[in-house]
Amino acid sequence: MKASKETMRICDSHFGKLHHRNGKENAFRHALWNLKICEKCQKTLKISQKSSKWAEKVTNLYENVTKNESLEDAMDLHNNSVGRMLFLTISGLKMAKKVDILLKMMQKAVKITKMEELQSLKDQLVYISD
Fold this sequence. Notes:
Elements: H1 2-15, H2 24-45, H3 48-65, H4 70-90, H5 95-107, E1 110-111, E2 126-127
Parallel strand pairs: 1-2
């Protein structure tokens, strides 16, 4: 999928391989991935909410087939959701500006140790390891 390749290219250029761990860089990658999937779908579906819903289905399916620990899954699903929310709120901006916004959000990402913490962090990126 083109959105996945573009996401990996952007993340590799900013973080090297750090985005493959469970840190802030991974949170950035998941949010950007969902934002980019939404953008690609928008071209066909024309309705932002439909694009977001489709991206949610696809990325939830992906997370269900990966073999992650429960907290990793919850973190990924949460950051995916943040990316879709961001798509719905900043869709008119150029990609470079969206990346800048996500980089700023990444700097304010919150480290979590249990799933219950996610409920109060709806609009924030989260990570589980430094």
